[in-house]
Amino acid sequence: MHFLRRHWIRQFGLAAAGIVLDPIRRAQAQRSQLPRDPVSPAAEGPSRFCIMGDRTGGAQAGVYERAVDRIVAERPRFVINVGDSIEGLRDFWTDIEWVEMKKLWRRYGAIPHYSTPGNHDIWSADSQRLYTRFTGHPPQYSFTQGSCHITVLDNSRSDTLDEAQIAFLREDLQQHRDAPLKLVFLHKPFWIPFLMLKSGEFSLHKTCVEFGVQWVFSGHLHHLWHLERDGVQYVSLGSCGGSMERGKTRGEGFGHGWFYHYGVATVSNGQLALRIQELPPPHGEGRSFAIGEWWENHPSDSLRRALATHPRGGWSAVSAPPPAPVPGA
Ligand SMILES: [Fe+2]
Ligand SMILES: [Fe+2]
Asked: What's the pTM value of the predicted model, to 2 decimals?
């Protein structure tokens, strides 16, 4: 993963160049606005959808399949992923991989499924054509479900987000300015270095603030991140089957965001609450918590305490049966 290290170093450098660091208390104040209590399925509001993290690279057998089945049991209004559905990167096998992927997605039945392009899904013009053919969506597109307007952007072949994508986003948001809840999905979380330096000096963030986008979702790193700035929540979902070897070789685990999970977003009155749901055994411990209990790539002290005092000991399970179906928003 040397390329990742180089990428982050380069991004930190870029961000630092044009940035005046804000006082730490500003970040702390933003953080204090986050919901602190875990959201239990029973307390969920009138509509929910699920968000899947990376299946690849290095898909672990059976994990994604288990996540799909759990999500179907959650009965969401729709499902969206953050990219890296196939291993890809080899032109010869691409269409076969998509055919297999589509078979798996058929388990969703009538639940609409949306994709975000990852670097394992699109790496060339040919792979882009196959992505569009098999997912049914172009690399960048948008859709509205209930009170949510979602814009999906493509940074599968970029380490940042190019100006054409920003232009697409701005035009889309202009057309949906009145949507109560606006979300953006893009695969690579290039926003992490900027936000870690307390900077909002990048086009995506400025556009989100200007148009009132409340949430940005990414993936790619295979471990969970959560940051916030100017009221915009940024979440990079961790693995939904993609390799976690990088964390393992560092001796890291749940406490650094390395666990198989998906997101459950509950929408009510134009607000979104996000619950992170770990997979149950044998792929995890079924732990569940509100995203407000996670900061950067670590659990909050209160979440650590809550899990440590659970009867099962240590990082204990907080799993629950799937909630009952709810009407759409
Ligand atoms: Fe990726
Ligand atoms: Fe990935």
From this structure: 0.84
